[in-house]
Specification:
The protein has two domains: about 5-175, Rossmann fold; about 175-460, L-fucose Isomerase, Chain A, domain 2 (3-Layer(aba) Sandwich), CATH 3.40.275. Helices cover about 35% and strands about 20% of the residues. The chain is built from 15 helices and 18 strands. It has helices at about 5, 35-50, 65-75, 95-100, 125-140, 155-175, 195-200, 210-215, 220-235, 245-265, 275-280, 285-295, 305-315, 425-430, 445-455, and strands at about 20-25, 55, 80-85, 105-110, 145, 175-180, 205-210, 270, 300, 325-330, 335-340, 360, 370-375, 380-390, 390-405, 410-415, 440-445, 460.
């Protein structure tokens, strides 16, 4: 049911790209308070009309098995990504198993409150949703639950979270990750198992050799490269000992990754950049990676496929733009976030400021093109990761706030203060669980949302 165009190079995703199919479940015979049911439905339609998502409302009168199947077929033809199911008044619970059988991703069940006046029960909407939820759980079918009157701020927040979770699960089920090369030497904890990935997350893994990647870099004409270099020039990023001419290779890196993403319909891409690429090509691809992550694409360095999937998850959940960082060092309440220079520009200090993004040479072998920058201070962030160990997937997340780094470091430099745990003990716990050294960094506080997603994916949550 996924629209292929929306998935091509997942970087183009926005809320309006997520198509929500809406089903109003009704009754064959009148019951409860029909006028209240009409009022609730009217309020729901009005709220959905203002939604940031793309909404398709099925107008089928859904009252039994046959009408539900027909409605689900309409949603399939409309290429809906998420199914939102409402019962303004309690419907027939026998439709729940049909829903579980016909829809293979989490359905969002939206229950609405009772009328506050009178002595009669007006809707029994929550009871109906509860019946569906319990039935689906016992059938081992996924769902998300929302409860509230249409149009309120709390209900809107619940709907947004539930729709994002359902969408992310489906995006993983239908997605494909790409891997250029292999994991970096010695980082065997980041080895990608395509079969376990598919069994537990639904993703396919597509492998490219480094030679294929290098050939793709040479496919572009001088005119195409010049146009991209002009785009980089318009970003007005200061350069530190890097000439304009040296940015040709950085543009070829960017164009090659973009072409692979679009040509192979990739949802995420991991590249073994270290140690070979800077020797084989003469440059690092970190400027290209920073651009891609700034555009919202899930990209992982050093062949870290699960890390790239972590970034894909953050984007699907609407957490903004994120990137992979090393956990460089820590104290009892801080984590130093550092990498060679690949953070999205939105997370960094402003362009033109002292610690804003600058195109530079790598701190180690002095080759371009990396992005030196500090993360913005005072930014609420979530640090999380998904990985596999002991034949199962795990997920962890914790919340922090960035503060000014205590020392200058070339590359991406950030310092995060953590207030809800002893970081030293937490690091030991994560090492005991086999977590690799990369973590995904996203703006905002999203640990609870990620925990709900882990539940939907049946992933072991470490919290």
């Amino acid at each position: 049911m996924m629209n292929k165009g929306k998935e091509t190079g997942g970087k183009y995703l926005s809320a309006s790209d997520i198509r929500v199919g809406v089903l109003f479940l009704r009754r064959k015979r009148p019951g409860f308070d029909p006028e209240w049911g009409k009022k609730v439905e009217s309020a729901a339609r009005a709220a959905l009309a203002k939604s940031e998502f793309s909404v398709f409302i099925c107008e089928e009168r859904i009252v039994d098995d046959a009408s539900l199947r027909h409605a689900l077929q309409e949603c399939s033809q409309a290429q809906t990504d998420v199914l939102l199911v409402l019962q303004p008044t309690m419907s027939d619970g026998r439709m729940a198993p049909v829903l579980g059988q016909m829809w293979d991703a989490p359905a969002v069940l939206w229950a609405t409150p009772e009328k506050k006046e009178g002595s009669m029960i007006s809707a029994c909407s929550l009871v109906g949703a509860h019946t569906f939820a319990s039935t689906l759980r016992q059938l081992n079918r996924p769902f998300e639950l929302v409860y509230g009157f249409p149009g309120t701020e709390d209900t809107e927040a619940q709907l947004n979270a539930a729709i994002r979770i359902a969408y992310t699960v489906r995006r993983l089920q239908k997605g494909k990750a790409g891997l250029v090369g292999y994991h970096a030497p010695g980082f065997i904890d980041m080895h990608a198992d395509p079969f376990q990935m598919n069994r537990e997350l639904g993703l396919q893994l597509h492998h490219f050799s480094l030679q294929e990647f290098l050939h793709t870099m040479q496919e572009f004409s001088r005119e195409e490269v010049d146009r991209d270099m002009a785009i980089v020039a318009d970003m007005r990023l200061p350069r530190e000992e890097v000439s304009v001419e040296e940015l040709e290779t950085a543009s070829r890196y960017y164009l090659a990754m973009t072409r692979m993403i679009e040509r192979e319909n990739l949802s995420a891409l991991a590249v073994r950049d270290w140690p070979e690429l800077s020797d084989m090509v003469g440059q690092w691809p970190y400027l290209a990676m920073a651009r891609l992550s700034s555009e919202g694409f899930a990209v992982g360095c050093e062949g870290d496929v699960d890390g790239a999937i972590s970034c894909l998850i953050g984007g699907g959940l609407g957490m903004g733009v994120g990137y992979l960082s090393d956990w460089l060092e820590h104290t009892g309440e801080t984590v130093t976030l550092w990498h060679g220079g690949n953070a999205p520009f939105q997370l960094c200090e402003p362009v033109g400021s002292k610690y804003g993004p600058r195109i530079a040479k790598h701190f180690n072998n002095k080759k371009p093109a990396v992005v030196n920058a500090n993360l913005k201070a005072g930014l609420p962030i979530t640090i999380f990761r998904i990985w596999h160990c002991d034949d199962i997937y795990h997920m962890m997340a914790f919340e922090a706030e960035t503060i000014p780094p205590e020392r200058e470091l070339k590359g991406t430099n950030g310092l995060a203060r953590v207030r809800d745990r002893d970081v030293c003990q937490w690091f030991d716990d994560l090492c005991q669980a086999g977590m690799p050294h990369h973590v995904a960094v996203f703006p905002g506080q999203h640990a609870k949302l990620l925990q709900r997603l882990a539940r939907q994916l049946n992933i072991n949550w470490i919290g």
